[in-house]
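Dear H.,

Thanks for agreeing to be a second pair of eyes. The structure we're designing against is below in token form, covering all 83 positions.
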């Protein structure tokens, strides 16, 4: 005579009455969801800063003194002093 299967080791969902739950994919881990939310918030914040202009003026002029231009004139770049 065979022994009946142990109900505690059964891989069924008793509330649905549908049998094994092997067709249900595993859920996404909590840390992945958390990182996705943080990344989304940072992207949204960067987009708001860019679109509203709160980031200020960017470029090489931002790091020089007021009214100072950076560049080479044609006279300085020509060999022989720009004859």
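And this is the sequence the design step returned. I haven't edited it by hand at all.
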């Amino acid at each position: 005579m065979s022994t009946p299967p142990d109900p505690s080791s059964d891989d069924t969902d008793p509330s649905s009455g549908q049998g094994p739950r092997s067709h249900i994919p595993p859920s996404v881990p909590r840390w992945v969801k958390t990182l996705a939310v943080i990344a989304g918030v940072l992207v949204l914040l960067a987009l708001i800063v860019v679109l509203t202009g709160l980031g200020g003026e960017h470029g090489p002029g931002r790091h020089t003194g007021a009214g100072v231009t950076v560049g080479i004139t044609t006279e300085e770049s020509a060999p022989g002093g720009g004859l």
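Two observations from my side: The mean pLDDT is 74. The two ends are 112 Å apart (CA to CA).

Warmly,
E.
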